[in-house]
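pasting for the record
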Amino acid sequence: MEHVPEQTSTDEDPSLDPVLLEDLADAIDEHDRPWLSRTLLRLHPADAADALEQLSIDTFLEGVTLLGGALPSEILIELRDEYRERAVEILPDEVVTEALDLLDSDDATTILEDLDEERRDKILSEIAPQDRAALEHGLTYEEETAGRLMQREVFAAPEFWTVGEAIDHARAEADRLPEQFYEVCIVDPGMKVRGIVPLAMLMRTDRTVPLADIMLPLQSDIRGDMDQEEVAYQFQKYHLAQAPVKDADGRLIGIITVDDMVEVIQDENTEDFLALSNVSSADGSHTVMESVRARAPWLAVNLVTAFVVSGVIALFEGTLQQIVALAILMPVVAALGGNAGSQGLAVAVRAIAERELEGSAARRAILRECLTGLVNGILFAIGVGVIAYVWFRDPGLSGVIAVAMLATFVWAGLSGVAVPLGLKRMGADPAVASSVFVLTMTDIVAFFSFLGLASLVLL
């Protein structure tokens, strides 16, 4: 095992290095703790976490056990949820306690979330009272809220301080400040935020200038109980690098930085993407049974909706027996209509997540999608009608499928945006429930219009 990588550069991904992965696995198998620890420390914590996650789950857990207290807390917090939870589960209490002491409060809260209540209380009892109180306060907030994301270490200063006093304070109290921060929060005696001073402005201003003269108004308004998706929206809207978090009375209780928001935005996007596919979760460490439990419920829902669609087709059993060509062309109408509905749905769900469908914008979106469906419907109705005529030499059948195609496209455009908007107003998550309704209703309209028109016109 002579393959010891140097500190990685930004354009290299050591987690993709098969030699490194093989050496890591060999070191774990041979219980070579010094080499394993030394190698992981040479890597960026995120790269080290990636490399460990690419090992088999059994090898990963064996490696965590082997490292014990030598597993850096910076690597532990970079692990994906599934791997971090398994790692924390097998690490000794004293190792977890030490990691909590070394991490910022927001990362420490993430570790505490992985523990069962009895073990959490035991570990918290070993932490200094002041730090324990801060961590316990964070756990009082619901999951996926600003209170869980924020770190309690804050650089706050009164507005009567000068720039020089603020800089001197930062140097003197470096151990009490966040590891990374981008702004100074200006507060009044009641700890209510009056404004912010970006670090770039602080460093460019003369030491004698009062902070009140250079502070900027606060753009965000983030409360501890605010949903993380709304927090992410404010970061995107106002292009924030950092934002203060306030309690119900408007007092400063913590800060959230952009690195946390990047993870939230990625997690929310992944969640919506999986929800549109009717999958509740996905992770490389999942077992077969865990994957089955995540997907089977939605497949069961789709089974029910499929029989509903089959029931509509059964209404026209006699028509299908007399005109076999209808059975050949049915999938064409349903497939194109379903794809059109999925396109509109994907656009609508993204727009809802970005707050782009509020008020009159929603009405314009419905009109736009209906007109889009109408134009696409005309184009594809002509194309499908011509193909059907060339294939079967039946002008009546050609006309029926063209009209059915047009009706299906218009309905797909309408339902693709109206259904998620309706579900949102009812308080449901449009990403989770919309696809089942949109695709089922599109299939029903497609088959009903096609077979119904065929019964009226061709028979």
